[in-house]
Write a structure and sequence with these properties.
By secondary structure, the protein is of the alpha/beta class. 51% of the residues lie in helices and 14% in strands. Helix 1 crosses helix 2 and helix 12 crosses helix 15.
């Protein structure tokens, strides 16, 4: 049996830890024309499982005959991709509505946008989409657009502005925007996109430990590899609920064992596991840290367990009110978590080691 774990970013792995309840709830909301979840923001840290969650959601919605799902790149002409996507997935009747519109031509390759250089007439996407969506509404068909890895851009602003108008007209449109926490926050706080402030946010939370343990056990046993209880406990603790870590550690242990897996086998791959975890995920995460973010996490990393905000004030020499801004920022970015009242800890496995090994060195060199 081939290795069932896949630590590649942006791909849905063969073993996907089920988030079915969250998926079912969102599907139900998307079907409801009065739901605030018609426009939804999905965010999670790099490697948290956003792509797998979106894929599971789309697979579920694809079973609904009254939905068209469009996976649209976050760059390029988003409006054109949106129109082309609808065109490619609709009937000939809907496609005929495009014939009479200036700047549009049909071909065997789909819909093409043309510009009249003499009159400089450009496509009126709002008019075009209103006509198409009214036809789809008559047939009770809803268009769900999914845009992953979002960043605020002129093209995305233009698309969302028109999408908002379509939504206000009660046309059958839905929108999922997914991305890293900071990028989603930037989008919500964009002065041109204030309506997104009212859009619900779905956080891709860490995986449940019992679910992680069960899936490890199931995967190894299915591959005729006996895995003992101590090995399962060690792997579950080492991946810390981080989806990428679950795949990476599973991949390494599987690759380096035969028919039996012991705690010793797990220990033997931990150094390589941490090296790949730091290189492939944490370096990218830390690149987004501000100067004060680095001071904050370095101060936290000096402690072996949870850190009190009182101690943070003493160590950094900054006021509690000042540190609260960075605490909120790092909480939102899913780098830290509140462990109890007044105490915080790291979310990601071995992140304390990463900070002490790399962030401290980089900070001292700045």
């Amino acid at each position: 049996m081939n290795n069932p774990f896949n630590p590649s970013f942006g791909k849905v792995p063969p073993i996907y830890i089920d988030r079915s309840q969250q998926v079912e709830e969102l599907v139900s909301e998307l079907k409801n024309s009065d739901s605030p979840y018609q426009t939804t923001l999905i965010y999670g840290q790099r490697g948290s499982g956003k792509t797998s969650f979106i894929s599971a959601l789309c697979q579920k919605i694809e079973t609904q005959k009254d939905f068209i799902i469009l996976n649209i790149p976050s760059s390029g002409n988003i409006l054109l991709s949106y129109v082309q996507g609808i065109y490619s997935k609709t009937s000939k009747t809907i496609q005929k509505t495009l014939d009479s519109l200036d700047g549009i031509s049909l071909s065997v390759f789909g819909i093409q946008v043309e510009y009249n250089k003499k009159t400089e007439v450009q496509v009126n996407y709002q008019l075009l989409l209103e006509k198409i969506l009214k036809k789809l509404s008559e047939k009770k068909i809803t268009v769900l657009a999914v845009i992953d890895e979002v960043k605020a851009s002129a093209e995305l602003r233009k698309f969302i502005s028109i999408y908002q108008i379509l939504l206000q007209q009660n046309l059958p449109v839905r929108l999922l925007l997914a991305g890293l926490p900071q990028n989603v926050s930037d989008l919500q706080n964009d002065n041109q996109l204030t309506f997104l402030l009212r859009a619900p946010r779905i956080t891709i939370e860490p995986l449940d430990n019992s679910n992680v343990r069960f899936n490890y056990k199931k995967a190894f046993e299915k591959g005729d590899k006996f895995i003992d209880e101590k090995a399962l406990d060690k792997m579950t603790k080492a991946c810390g609920g981080y989806a990428y870590a679950f795949q990476l550690l599973g991949w390494l242990v599987w690759k380096n064992t035969t028919d039996k897996v012991s705690e010793k086998d797990v220990n033997s791959v931990l150094d390589e596991y941490k090296m790949l975890l730091f290189r492939n995920a944490y370096i990218k995460i830390s690149e987004g840290f501000s100067h004060m973010d680095k001071i904050f996490v370095i101060s936290m990393a000096k402690n072996s367990g949870s850190t009190s905000m009182k101690k943070m004030v003493e160590e950094t020499g900054k006021s509690n009110a000042y540190l609260s801004n960075y605490r909120a920022r790092l909480l939102d970015s899913q780098v830290i978590k509140q462990t109890s009242y007044g105490y915080i800890g790291f979310v990601l496995p071995f992140f304390r080691e990463f900070v002490n090994e790399r962030v401290v060195v980089e900070f001292e060199q700045d």
